[in-house]
């Protein structure tokens, strides 16, 4: 072999092995990168691609005559249940959630996984992200927005007030801005809270009652949200419905809520703090089961009129509503604990403490006649039955063997 041929042979060999090496590397990269349906797909320049857009469109596609809904807070407790229910009946659903760590994000990921199996794409992104919202409204003509993303919890507001402003005020405004500029404008249904009744003592709570004495920053941000809704309805013709949820509980619930962490602590043999008012008065809540809340959310969506604005301008007056979604029968927290003890077959170690002045109110009690009249809202699950379903889920989800020491 002459010198020139040897040289060419070596180069060819080098190119051959370099190609094999690069090919292997590429193969390994693609194999280890998440598949397109991965639950961890995050919004950002790397996936703001035609493929990402296709997934959004596919998820938003509804059966003919059905709704196309953007659900914010879709990996949350109420959001995941509502998203699943909408998808089940043929509506198109795109979810949005920032997966923050206010409570265990692995529970949010598990909800997301379930939704993805049902064909609901949940985008990881924040409602404060204007660009993302604009992009979503550019890709899909959403008929409705179900806005459930929020910083929840009444007591946590003293620890992290900024998070309430970020999500419940700034986030709400960013979302309303995107909705008012969208063409067509969607109708909006969003989660307010029973906490807006604050120190109200007239029972049962009616939507007509005054709500100007919030007892927590959380309540104040929800009340502010109702006022902001009024503004966007008035100026831009957005159709907006606020739903005042009353202490929603059930399977896949929020670990920061009392019924949830009571269950955890009772099972672990840890003490629980049961709050009590002055003169040994029991604190009570109008606990409302998740399936009843979902029916209320769907009823509100189905009776929402269209927004009337376009190009950011109002054409005529649009619908503005607020509904209580409660159970109409308050139950003392002491009774909640007794039901849990029976269901878990474990005696709770109760520490009775005076109701702290950190946002809690003595009782809540919903008058639901308006929601009943407008969309036939009628809760059917009492606390005993609802907690039974929650406990079944809890034991299954956390794979805990029931203790037999009651
Ligand atoms: O419906 C509402 O408006 C609100 O309902 C719940 O707020 P809350 O009713 O305070 O629910 P929990 O935190 O689960 O408390 C339930 C009851 O247990 C009591 N509690 C709570 C914690 C505790 O350690 N001990 C205790 O006795 C509370 O005083 C309250 O009466 C949610 O956490 C809020 O996000 C929601 O907006």
Outline:
The protein is of the alpha/beta class. The protein contains twelve helices and 13 strands. The chain has a domain at about 1-35.
Write the layout of secondary structure elements.
Blueprint: H1 3-32, H2 50-60, E1 68-72, H3 77-88, E2 92-97, H4 105-117, E3 121-124, H5 130-139, E4 144-147, H6 161-181, E5 187-193, H7 217-236, E6 240-245, E7 248-249, H8 258-268, E8 271-276, E9 284-285, E10 288-289, H9 290-302, E11 320-325, E12 331-332, H10 333-344, E13 349-354, H11 369-375, H12 383-397
Parallel strand pairs: 1-2, 1-4, 2-3, 4-5, 5-6, 6-11, 7-10, 8-13
Antiparallel strand pairs: 9-12
Helix pairs in contact: 3-4, 3-9, 5-6, 6-7, 8-10, 10-12
Uridine-5'-diphosphate-glucuronic acid binds at residues 152-154, 193-195, 245-247, 257-258, 273-275, 283, 285, 333, 360.
Can you describe this structure?
With 406 residues, the chain is α/β, with parallel strands linked by helices. The protein is built from twelve helices and 13 strands. It has a domain at 1-33. The protein has a seven-stranded parallel β-sheet, sandwiched between helices. Bound molecules: uridine-5'-diphosphate-glucuronic acid (UGA). Uridine-5'-diphosphate-glucuronic acid binds at residues 152-154, 193-195, 245-247, 257-258, 273-275, 283, 285, 333, 360.
């Amino acid at each position: 072999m002459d010198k020139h041929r040897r040289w060419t042979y070596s180069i060819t060999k080098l190119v051959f092995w370099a190609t094999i090496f690069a090919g292997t590397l590429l193969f390994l990269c693609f194999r280890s990168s998440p598949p397109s349906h991965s639950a961890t797909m995050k919004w950002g320049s790397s996936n703001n691609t035609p493929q990402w857009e296709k997934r959004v469109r596919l998820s938003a596609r509804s059966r003919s005559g059905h709704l196309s809904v953007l659900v914010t807070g879709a990996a949350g407790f109420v959001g995941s249940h509502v998203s699943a229910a909408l998808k089940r009946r043929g509506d198109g659903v795109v979810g949005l959630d920032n997966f923050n760590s206010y409570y265990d994000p692995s529970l949010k990921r598990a909800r997301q996984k379930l939704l993805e199996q049902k064909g609901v794409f949940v985008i990881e992104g924040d409602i404060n992200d204007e660009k993302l919202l604009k992009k979503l409204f550019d890709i899909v003509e959403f008929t409705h927005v179900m806005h459930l993303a929020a910083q929840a919890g009444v007591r946590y507001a003293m620890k992290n007030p900024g998070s309430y402003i970020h999500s419940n005020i700034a986030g709400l405004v960013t979302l309303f801005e995107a909705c008012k500029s969208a063409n067509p404008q969607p109708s909006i249904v969003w989660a307010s809270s029973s906490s807006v009744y604050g120190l109200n003592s007239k029972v049962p709570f009616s939507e007509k009652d005054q709500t100007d004495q919030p007892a927590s920053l959380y309540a104040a941000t929800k009340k502010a949200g109702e006022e902001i809704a009024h503004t966007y309805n008035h100026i831009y013709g957005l159709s907006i419905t606020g739903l005042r949820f009353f202490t929603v509980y059930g399977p896949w619930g929020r670990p920061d809520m009392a019924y949830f962490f009571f269950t955890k602590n009772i099972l672990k043999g840890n003490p629980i703090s049961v709050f009590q008012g002055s003169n040994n008065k029991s604190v009570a809540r109008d606990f409302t089961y998740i399936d009843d809340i979902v029916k209320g959310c769907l009823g509100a969506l189905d009776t929402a009129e269209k927004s009337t604005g376009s190009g950011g301008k109002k054409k005529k007056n649009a619908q503005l509503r607020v509904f209580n979604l409660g159970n109409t029968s308050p139950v003392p927290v002491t009774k909640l604990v007794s039901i849990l003890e029976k269901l878990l077959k474990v005696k709770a170690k109760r520490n009775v403490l005076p109701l702290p002045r950190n946002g809690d109110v003595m009782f809540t009690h919903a008058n639901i006649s308006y929601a009943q009249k407008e969309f036939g809202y009628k809760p059917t699950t009492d606390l005993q039955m609802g907690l039974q379903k929650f406990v079944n889920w809890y034991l299954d989800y956390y794979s805990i063997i029931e203790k037999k020491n009651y």
